[in-house]
Amino acid sequence: MSTKVVIDLEAEKKEILKRYGALLRSLGEKIDKQEKLLIRKAFNLALDAHKDMRRKSGEPYIYHPIAVAQIVSSEIGLRATGVICALLHDTVEDTDVTLNDIRTMFGETEAKIIDGLTKIENVFDQSSSIQAENFRKVLLTLSDDVRVILIKLADRLHNMRTLESMARDKQLKIASETLFLYAPLAHRLGLYNIKTEMEDLGLKYTQPDVYEEITTKLKNTDEVRRRFISRFIYPIRSSLMHTGIKFDIKGRPKSIYSIFNKIKGKGIPFEEIFDIFAIRIIIDSPPETEKADCWRVYSLITDIYQPNPDRLRDWISTPRANGYESLHTTVMSPTGKWVEVQIRSRRMDEIAEKGYAAHWKYKEKNDYESSIDDWLGRIREMMENSDYNALEFINDFKLNLFSEEIFVFTPKGELKTLPAGSSALDFAFDIHSEVGMACIGAKVNNKLVPLSHKLKSGDQIEILSSVKQKPKEDWLNFVVTAKARSKIKSALKEEKRAVADAGKEILEKKLKALKINLDTTVVNNLIRHFKVNSALDLYFGIGEEVIKLENLAKIARGEKSESWYKMLRNKFTRSSGNDASPATLENIVKEIRGKSDMLVIGEDMEKIDYKLAPCCTPIPGDEVFGFVTINEGIKIHKTNCPNAISLMSNYAYRIVKARWMNQHQLAFMAGIRVNGIDDVGIVNNITRIISNELNVNMRSISFDSLDGVFEGNIMVFVHDTHHLTDLMSKIKQVKGVTSVLRVDSN
Ligand code: MN
What is the whole-number distance in angstroms between the Cα of residue 683 and the centre of ligand 1? Predict the structure, then answer.
């Protein structure tokens, strides 16, 4: 800071304790001793975790969680659990405190709520813009416990109250988000006061001039309004006095925001709406008689003023799903203006302003606990249930929870709906088939994941692509959307056809040199010999160089030419079955060795039945040996394979020397492990090297980071060890990378 600010730490400490004291007082008798201790524990933990942090205003950070807890307690009506979580709501996100700490110190419920709050923070506060509908959907999927949403609203309300010290662009972003998302949400949860305050503050920061103008005009017309109200309610008041019912009459103008909406939306000048307001009559009536009493008051009022029969709303017999109960009528005032009159009991009024939690304000603790569950359950139900016609917003939610769909986002916050179980690759295809075809990996919530990564609701996905990527057969194993499946299949077919065309050309040329015509007989002979299903498969095999055209003349003419290894194997299988004796195996090995002293891998591919051992995934350039297995032909291992010593010492008689043919067309899979310091962009830099700088295909990639350190596991296709070493040394040069290791398998 350039200007010196003198901070009186002692005074601050006093102020913190004062605010904490006020918080406890707002809970009053609603918590027991045990809970009080837990709240103290949460306060101490938050105080310590945030001790070196300050808000933009320069105030100690802890003021914020205390204020959020205060809102949660006195304006929403949550008790111990809500207050504890509100106190801790920013700890996991911003400090060293972990979810585990919270689980151990408080419990599973608290950990879950904090987890939900942290996730919401992560999903939303990073992306530029989110549409309201998406926001609500995700809010719901992320929060099993509705308290998550309530605390989030309290958090936002306090941030709005303290928006003054933020930079202008932040003010605009936060205020418009609040108007767009949080205020409607508060409304739908029945938190009327919070909704109104959010809207007014939202307007204050998005359109300061308009806000200022309306506020000033309201102040200037205050006197007129007050006179009107008192004249209007005078006869009502005296009539009610005779009933013996205790009551309060409130008359207040519409909120600044709703006046603004009228001016803007309907083009009505302020002068014509400033005196639109509702008169609220709140009666002190026990639950047994409150309904009858409300109707009695209604009857009294309509004796005085003429009601508009079209504007009677009975929310007492059928409360609105957000819990709102009230009796509304609109009557004609002596000055010729319609005035809305709301009649309700004290209990109904508290619910209207604070939501359902107010309902249990005076109840005993046990009652409260079950009631709060009830309420939270009702909110959920209300949000989920599509049969509530009374609720216009239900459409926003009904798709969601128990359905088979997930909601995910593009980096720009655009919503995509996918079937549950969808992978990152499905998402890529959902964006565009070209994106799907070129997809090499993805970042989910900023973390690198393989194509097969299963998505969850709320995930935000960025697709990584490479022009070198081509659809792969194994993609079909993990895509679930019809679009991805059919696109991959047709791409594979197309590619296969192209390769097959090339293969056919090769075959024709070779046959021409042998003066053999490519006719049906020749094709059938080749199909039979190479054990493929169709001419297409044959040409494809040739194109892919899986089928080697040696002894072509013989094969094409249909002459027998079985590979020596297959002959050996047949003999071996016939003589020994699965219980091959060392002697039998040794004989086979001898025969192989007698044939040639060294197995050349890549050359005798169709002749020799060999596989690359999965335990050490050798690639050309590695020093290797062959191991004769009982049922799977020869397995090629690296000489430094972890199993090599045991194989060589116990089964030396089954070892065959082997070397690689110089082979650059084939790609082999290898694993690389990268460790380093988690740094912005590091993952990007690594993948860029892999996908762009070198001609390497990535098969899978996964990155994990913990406490600022990351570990990445990458499986790539390379031609040989040179290729791999080159790649590894390039990765090692990326800033932040501390080590690059070859690993044997994934
Ligand atoms: Mn916060």
Answer: 29
- Bridge partners of residue 656, in order along the sequence: 626
Please tell me which residue in 48, 59, 94, 603 is annotated as part of the active site. 94
Rounded-to-integer distance, Cα 677 and Cα 195, Å: 44
Angle at 118 between CA 114 and CA 120, to 5 degrees: 115
What integer is the mean pLDDT of 673-680?
80
The pLDDT, as a whole number, for residue 564 is: 44
Residue 223 is a catalytic residue: no
Per-residue model confidence as pLDDT tens digits over 346-379: 988 887 877 655 554 444 445 555 555 555 565 5
In three-state secondary structure terms, 247 is strand
Segments of 445-535 assigned E as strands: 447-449, 461-465
Contact 44, 88 (CB under 8 A): no
The CATH number that domain 668-743 falls under is 3.30.70.260
Coil, strand or helix at 251:
strand
Give 174 Cα–ligand 1 centroid separation in angstroms: 13
Does residue 672 contact residue 746 with C-beta atoms inside 8 Å? no
User: Which among 35, 48, 93, 369 is annotated as catalytic?
Assistant: 93
Q: Where are the domains of the chain?
A: 9-165, 215-362, 565-660, 668-743
Of the two residues 267 and 741, the one the predictor is more confident about is: 741
Whether residue 592 contacts residue 599, with contact meaning beta carbons closer than 8 Å, is answered with yes
Q: What is the CA radius of gyration of the chain?
A: 37
Report CA(156)–ligand 1 centroid distance (Å): 7
Q: What are phi and psi of 281, to 5 degrees?
A: -110, 115
| Residue 650 scores a pLDDT above 50 | yes
For the packed helices 80-88 and 63-70, what is the interaxial angle rounded to 10 degrees? 150
pLDDT tops 90 at residue 57: no
Q: Which DSSP helix (H) or strand (E) runs through 670? A: strand 668-677
User: 199 forms bridges with which residues in the sheet?
Assistant: none
155 C-alpha to center of ligand 1: Å? 5
Judge whether 579 counts as a catalytic residue.
Answer: no
Average pLDDT of every residue of the chain: 78
Could you give the 3-state DSSP secondary structure of residue 657? Answer: strand
Cα(159) to centroid(ligand 1), Å: 7
Angle, CA 140 vertex, CA 135 and CA 145 arms, to 5°: 140
Q: What per-residue confidence (pLDDT) applies to 205?
A: 92
Is 337 within 8 Å of 271 (Cβ atoms)?
no
Region 241-255: mean pLDDT is 85
Query: Whole-angstrom Cα distance, residue 701 to residue 524?
Result: 43
The answer to whether residues 80 and 39 touch, using CB atoms and an 8 Å cutoff, is: yes
Token duo for residue 101: 């700490």
Residues 6+ apart with CB under 8 A from 123: 138, 142, 409, 445, 458, 460
User: What's the pTM value of the predicted model, to 2 decimals?
Assistant: 0.50
- H or E, element range at 734: none
Same fold, 9-165 and 215-362: no
Does 9-165 carry CATH code 1.10.3210.10? yes
User: Which pair of structure tokens corresponds to residue 546?
Assistant: 């899986």
CATH 3.30.460.10 fits 215-362, yes or no: yes
**344 with 283: CB under 8 angstroms?**
yes
d(CA 613, CA 627): 9
